Amino acid sequence: MSQRTALVTGAASGIGLAVSQALAADGVNVVMADLNQVAGQTEADKIGALFVKADLSKQADCRALVDAALAKFGRVDILINNAGIQHVAPIEEFPEEKWEFMIALMLTAPFRLTKYVWPGMKEANWGRIININSVHGLIASPFKSAYISAKHGMTGLTKTAALEGGKFGITVNSICPAYVRTPLVDNQIADQAKIHNIPPEQVVEEIMLKNAAVKRMIEPSEIGDLVLYLCSDKAACFTGSSLTIDCGWTAT
After folding, report:
1. Which of 4, 84, 92, 171 has an alpha carbon 20 to 30 Å from 232's alpha carbon atom?
2. How far apart are CA 239 and CA 43, in angstroms?
3. What crossing angle do the helices spanning 145-165 and 109-124 adopt, rounded to 10°?
4. Which helix H or strand E contains 45, and what residues bound it?
5. Are strands 127-132 and 78-81 parallel, antiparallel or unpaired?
6. DSSP E strands, 2-134
7. Catalytically annotated residue among 116, 147, 179, 229
8. 147 noted as active-site residue
9. Could you tell me whether strands 50-53 and 78-81 are parallel, antiparallel, or unpaired per DSSP bridges?
10. 76 vs 68: CA distance, rounded Å
């Protein structure tokens, strides 16, 4: 996919970093966006990517991110909406400001970035938009109201954009993994232990892997491999799909 340009959000670590590495290794020009400037710039330098610091909960930063990619490479062919955070709390204790931030980051930002890259993709008659969703974009679990609401919204955004983009050569899909071995998941363990009243060392087995047929975490590189396939011409008929990579969680 040489000469293509990809914009990846939440790219300083975890899934976003693995996706950036996979795309760069395949010859794609990569623009990595994250709030963590030190880690983001360090990782971008390793793969020859452009790093842009951005708070995607803000409209101006979303616009500036796309403008920076266009200024550097003249085009955005691939958009990977990955940035996200997690907060675990009962609804009656969930901070309203945290809700607003999470919806802005994980639902409004993907809409804005999709909107801003859309004209260029239409003009090129080719585009790939991949929303890094979650099994929680398809099902629910307790104590994650904002995360699950944002991810369910992302599922709807994916389907709508796919219907609008098909005639312009733009495919839009979401990847719905179960628990991936990332800092985002690691940072949940203490909160999950507190809410479920179990020791932290039991959270992975008793909470995170409880519903999985394959009892292991997913590696970020496995998401990167799936992204590469969806970006290829071999996947031209995949659009509007929510592809589960969930170790069998949603099979029941």
Report:
1. 84
2. 30
3. 20
4. helix 37-47
5. parallel
6. 5-9, 29-34, 50-53, 78-81, 127-132
7. 147
8. yes
9. unpaired
10. 10
Count of Cβ atoms closer than 10 Å to residue 125 Cβ: 10
Residue among 182, 239, 217, 228 at smallest CA distance from 14: 182
Length of the chain: 252
With 0-12 / 13-18 / 19 or more C-beta atoms within 10 angstroms meaning exposed / middle / buried, residue 91 is: exposed
User: Can you say how many angstroms the Cα of residue 38 is from the centroid of all Cα atoms in its chain?
Assistant: 20
One digit per residue, pLDDT tens: the chain, 252 residues? 668 999 999 999 999 999 999 999 999 999 999 999 999 999 999 999 999 999 999 999 999 999 999 999 999 999 999 999 999 899 999 999 999 999 999 999 999 999 999 999 999 999 999 999 999 999 999 999 999 999 999 999 999 999 999 999 999 999 999 989 887 777 777 777 787 788 877 877 877 888 889 998 899 999 999 999 999 999 999 999 999 999 999 997
Instruction: Identify which of 18, 39, 38 has the alpha carbon closest to the alpha carbon of residue 30.
Output: 18
d(Cα 14, Cα 45) in Å, to the nearest integer?
17
Neighbours of 2 (CB within 10 A): 7
